[in-house]
Amino acid sequence: MKKLAIVAIVAVLGCQLLALANPDRRVALWLGAVAAATVLLVARWFLVRAAASSIDDSRARDPAESLRRWLSKTEILIARADSTRSDWDKYLRPMLARQFELATGRRKGKDPRVFHATALALFGERLWQWVDPDDVSPTGAGEPGPGREVLAEVLQRLEAI
């Protein structure tokens, strides 16, 4: 907006200088008026555009809309947990492994032994097989997923950290 104001002032002053260079001084008034009107129209266009984008922003920050999006994503995660192992491996396992790394501060690339030991201490052998990023099944399309109970238990353990 500051740039627009600077350009507007320069445009009006430029038109006035050009009009003053003309021997007929009546033209100066008309050129100044045209320049000022143009600047006002452009400013109005920018303000209307900014108001429209702020309406979109307020809708994005609407708590009800955020809650609906969160609920929709949660329903999708639960459906994938109840689906096949392939869906679990493709969508849930990477998300859970990433959340585990973030929650514990242990990265697999730094020290795999510490990463594995921390995972076993937190999840136990039964749950770690569903979070372990290296335990993806190549034939998971025919196998059932672990279900929402396992997902709920994994999330509870991650939350407890």
Number of domains: 2
* Low-confidence parts: none
Global Rg: 31 Å
The SSE string, one letter per element, is HHHHHH
Percent helix: over 70%
How would you classify the helix and strand content by structural class?
mainly alpha
Keywords: Membrane, Transmembrane, Transmembrane helix
Task: Provide an overview of this structure.
- The protein has 161 residues and is an all-alpha fold.
- It has 2 domains: 2-60; 66-160, no CATH class.
- Helix content is 79%, strand content 0%.
- It contains 6 helices and no strands.
- The protein has helices at residues 2-21, 26-60, 63-81, 85-104, 112-131, 148-160.
- Helix 1 runs antiparallel to helix 2, helix 4 (85-104) runs antiparallel to helix 5 (112-131) and helix 4 packs parallel to helix 6 (148-160).
- The radius of gyration is 31 Å and the shape is rod-shaped.
- It starts with a helix and ends with a helix.
- Keywords: Membrane, Transmembrane, Transmembrane helix.
- The chain crosses the membrane at residues 29-47.
